């Protein structure tokens, strides 16, 4: 099929001659800004477009995606973090310039830093041990993201040498970091699956976290945490549309920021191409449907593969769905700050389910989601005790975050498929003249 291993010379010429056309329109829709993109098609182009928008923390409320032959057409309905249309000219200009380029990968990595990649079995206090090792080895943590899912942990930690302020290039020191961190990750029972890597490469942090957890096969593992009364897995179905040679993926779940990125990222890294899609949100619910094929042009061919796609997409959605109390730390940065803060969490029986660390102009701005050691809600008295030790003005409670339960629906019995939500895309394809009937 046409999407074989690599682009031939004619494909490359088409891409060069057909620079993406971008139109940003605030007049058509009363509630959102329309971002329209027309471009020559290539593998990963949808992910790159979505990545540009989500890296700006924009919400994609609706989207219509179609790839006809060698051409790719997108319409995104986006709002800012407050749910308003885009009015900042600098943001609009950035979107136009970014989407109108050749879609080169845009990492949100950090130059001049060393990236540490960690995966292993999650346990209470693990993050405290990791940061304690880095402090002991004179590694200054500048940025970090930590995800946990199904009792697994993946983390990207960007560090520099504490004394020189430069990337860590000393091979002896790098080896010491790897050995010490791997020992911490192994603990007493994770000898085989604990992994530590050091990289100088610039990467897109969140995409890399997805890749790390996917490689760790977190989607096959079952969480040992007690089920929350407010949690329910997202509904994902995969059906065949043999008439057109597509596999149809439907997703219904709670809407949240970066949901589309997480799904498209997973499909792309699993070597699927999205040819058509419709994205819609209804109050707090998201409905997403994708018509996909392998990169060689074939649809999903077996029940085992179908189940794997379902598991992987459910895992991709759940990884970012933080549970627990959101704690925000804002204070002057200092040596050993993260080690001290996370040790205080551990000593008070708190488990970190997700973390985002950022240092700007000598100020640490960190976010932690915490539960108790069993994964249950934390006693408010414990939170106040932790805040007292760290500093009430430095550590603030912002919100409770749980993955909301899906409301009862007739589509949750497996009927989310070609003849229910599928009608959204079928109607879109009919309007584009790609099929004869939308009934």
UniProtKB/TrEMBL annotation:
The keyword Repeat applies. Residues 224-234 have a biased composition (Low complexity). Gene3D superfamilies: 3.30.70.260. GO terms for molecular function: amino acid binding. Residues 219-238 are annotated as: Disordered. Keywords: Repeat. It holds the Pfam family ACT. Binds amino acids. PANTHER family: ACT DOMAIN-CONTAINING PROTEIN ACR4-RELATED, ACT DOMAIN-CONTAINING PROTEIN ACR8. This is ACT domain-containing protein ACR. It comes from Aristolochia fimbriata.
């Amino acid at each position: 099929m046409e999407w074989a291993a690599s682009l031939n010379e004619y494909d490359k010429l088409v891409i060069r001659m057909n620079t993406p056309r971008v139109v940003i329109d605030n007049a058509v829709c009363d509630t959102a800004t329309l971002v329209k993109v027309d471009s020559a098609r290539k593998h990963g182009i949808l992910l790159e477009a979505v990545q540009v928008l989500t890296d700006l923390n924009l919400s994609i409320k609706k989207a219509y995606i179609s790839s006809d032959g060698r051409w790719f057409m997108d319409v995104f309905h986006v709002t800012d973090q407050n749910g308003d249309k885009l009015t900042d000219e600098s943001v609009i200009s950035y979107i136009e310039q970014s989407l109108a380029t050749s879609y080169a990968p845009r990492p949100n990595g950090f130059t001049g830093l060393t990236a540490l990649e960690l995966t292993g079995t999650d346990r209470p206090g693990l993050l405290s041990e990791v940061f304690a090792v880095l402090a002991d080895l004179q590694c200054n943590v500048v940025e970090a993201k930590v995800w946990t899912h199904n009792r697994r942990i993946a983390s990207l930690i960007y560090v520099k040498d504490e004394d020189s302020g430069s990337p860590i290039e000393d091979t002896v020191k790098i080896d010491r970091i790897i050995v010490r961190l791997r020992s911490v990750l192994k603990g007493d029972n994770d000898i085989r699956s604990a992994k530590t890597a050091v990289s100088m490469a610039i990467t897109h942090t969140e995409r890399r976290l997805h890749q790390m957890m996917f490689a760790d096969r977190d989607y096959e593992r079952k969480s040992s945490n007690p089920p929350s009364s407010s949690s329910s897995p997202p509904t994902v179905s995969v059906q065949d549309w043999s008439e057109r040679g597509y596999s149809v993926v439907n997703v219904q779940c709670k809407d949240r920021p970066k949901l589309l990125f997480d799904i498209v990222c997973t499909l792309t890294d699993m070597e699927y191409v999205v040819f058509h899609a419709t994205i819609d949100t209804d109050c707090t619910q998201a409905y997403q449907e994708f018509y996909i094929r392998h990169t060689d042009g074939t649809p999903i061919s077996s029940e085992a593969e179908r189940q794997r796609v379902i598991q992987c997409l459910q895992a991709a959605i759940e990884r970012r769905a933080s549970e627990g109390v959101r704690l925000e730390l804002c204070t002057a940065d200092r040596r050993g700050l993260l080690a001290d803060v996370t040790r205080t969490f551990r000593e008070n029986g708190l488990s970190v389910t997700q973390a985002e660390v950022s240092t700007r102009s000598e100020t640490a701005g960190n976010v932690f989601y915490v539960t108790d050691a069993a994964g249950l809600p934390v006693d408010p008295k414990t939170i106040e005790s932790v805040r007292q030790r760290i500093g009430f003005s430095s550590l603030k409670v912002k919100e409770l975050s749980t993955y909301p339960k899906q409301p009862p629906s007739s589509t949750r019995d497996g009927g989310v498929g070609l003849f229910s939500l599928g009608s959204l895309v079928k109607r879109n394809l009919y309007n584009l003249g790609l099929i004869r009937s939308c009934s």
